Amino acid sequence: MENLWKGYLKNSFVYTSIVLLFIVILLLAKLVEVQFIVYLFILVFFGAGLTVLLRYKSRKGWKKFVLFLLIGLFSLLTIVCFRTNSEVSFYGNLMNNTIKTVNHVYERKHGESFVVAKMKKDTESYQFGSWSAPKGYQNKKIELKQAKGYLLSKLGSKHQKVVYQIHGGGYIGGFSNTYNETAVNYSKSSGDSDVFSLDYRTAPKSLYPAALEDALEGYQWLLEHGYQAKNIRIAGDSAGAGLTLALTLYLRDHQIVLPKSLILVSPWADLTASGTSYKTKILSDPLFGSYSVQTAPKYPVPITYAGHHDLKDPYLSPVFGEYTNFPPMLIQTGANELLLSDSQTVVKKVQKVGGVVKFIEYPGMYHIFYITSPKLQESQNAWEMIQTFIKQY
Q1: Whole-model pTM?
Q2: Which of 143, 226, 272, 378 is deepest in the core (most CB within 10 A)?
Q3: Residues annotated as part of the active site
Q4: Domain 118-392, CATH 3.40.50.1820 — does that match?
């Protein structure tokens, strides 16, 4: 009786493991978006494995384990080889669709994107000292009149060049340690330049033009502390990229010396949400899109920061600005983004007046992908492009 019970438990464990492996493989195939034939292959693999298992019950346990390990590996190989979007790396596909799936589930339950929900929660002031600079670097807190800055520098460097980093967050999310890590990447990609990260005021406490005023003060601080404009590059992501464009428009309009170049990722530059991608990318954007066109919000992020100000003001929505006499810029964005047309509109305006702009759309990629997922192959390619751009401009 005891042996019978042990045999039952052993077989139950084996079959339960097989079922779990089968479910994991199917889920992976779904998230990576494989061709239909892959599902047939998986069914054949597992069907053959179960047939062998049932026919040769007396086989030793380790042989059964090896059998289904091989089936799992063959299934995984099939998934990798027969993805519908082979332009995108395996992990890029997996990350994109996992985020989309989680976001759609969250949206159905809570009525909004989990990213927007997180932004609303991240309104507390950043606590300096919660992050330690890596070996060979130091990080200093700089007090401005209304905002703060964090100056990261590599020990022993010349401290002549600087990347001025302006973070994203829809003007409602504050600075976070993600941007400290990004500052290190900017330093490494720019020949060990210093990196000055602005921690500006955000909505709902501070409405337009508070962030622009803080960005201007941060730039003036750099000029007043030994950094020449020809050695300043401004880098921004999302709302921070839009703010970078707004700041540069302001500098030009007020005859203030311009920075050497701009490095932008996924700029949010149209608070009117009037671009074509705000309609065509609703189902593909994993972060700000929606599971249905009917349920999609009018704006990807609440436009709280704008207050009652004119949304077409170029200092608020830079897509409505003019780009004569602008510094060279690099714009990188995901092709699946709701905000894609923001970048496209700015690029067309720069090209129309003969300006210098390098624009790259990454197939299958999502909002600020190289900031939040720097280990992806696409992200590494993006950082290499930043390094190349900085060497040139």
Answers
A1: 0.86
A2: 378
A3: 238
A4: yes
Render pLDDT for 72-92 as a digit per residue (tens, 0 to 9).
777 777 777 777 777 888 889
Smallest CA-to-CA distance from 127 within 89, 191, 180, 52 is with 180
